[in-house]
Structure formats: structure tokens, C-alpha cells
Amino acid sequence: MTSIFQQHYNFVINREAWVMNKRCLWRNIVARNFSLNSSRLSADRGT
Questions:
Q1: Dmax over Cα atoms in the chain, in whole Å?
Q2: pTM of the model
């Protein structure tokens, strides 16, 4: 019984960590794209 509860607890913790990692990765991708687009816009404005 305890092992089943422990497995479920570990599964919930791993899923939370996975969601957090996904969100962080998504935020990094969005920030990188935004910085690339802003630099590209400034370069286009300079020409």
C-alpha cells in the first residue's frame, strides 16, 4: 500500500516538474524569438 502511494506521489511530482520545465522552455523560446525579431526590426529600421 505504501509503495503504491509512493509511486503515485512520485508520479505527481514528476508531472509537476515536467510541466514547469515545459513552461520554462516555452518562455525561453518565446523570449529568444522576441529578441531576434526586435533586433531584426531595429536592423531593418537602420537600413
A1: 69
A2: 0.49
